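Structure representation.

___
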Amino acid sequence: MRITTAAILVSAAVASAQNSGTGNGEKLIQANDCTSCHATDRQVVGPAYRDMAKRYAGQGDAISKLATKIRDGGNGMTAHPDLSEAQRQQMAAWILAQKAATGAPVAAPTKLYAYKLKDGATVQLDFPVFVQGSGQKVTKEVFHGYQMYNSYCYRCHGTDANGSQLGPDLRHSLAAGMKWQEFLSVAMTGRKDKAMPSWGGFLSEDDVVHVYRYVKGRSLELVPSGRPPSEQD
């Protein structure tokens, strides 16, 4: 197998940056808002770190390019001008060191939960709304989504996800086919043209996914308005 000069250069650059501060890149990524939009082995809002490493593989100036991207942001990515160049390079080096896993991962089958709606129809969801065997008590994830929604989202989208004049009715958005990935992307990156703020770095991926589950339950009229009974009661 032929090894290019560029590949040697980027490998040496990554090794040098890593040796200058072992673990600093990962610590900096964890300390900033990166994990709100990225994960090592899967896409969240932005690409996986392993996919970034693959994209930049073989480029001699990979660290410099990625460090510049971290600084300037763009295309939905938040800029990080307050970080030093050395910090950005350590973060870039850690990202570039993430290698693709050997062999394709085997996805576990998705468990579905069936619920009967008020109109008699049955819907299947890939998450539980209620705790099994507890009647209408929502899961702790759905209840957490209720808490987060009515702490932050209600100001524009209405109390109990009922909609308002400031923001769209999210129940209608989900009923129209918005999936959790799109919901997560909009929440994390925002929409400046519609005065939607970015919650990346403030809310975690789990926070937003739980909000989605709560709103989904509201859109199907499974979760009542007000404080829903929960397994924590």
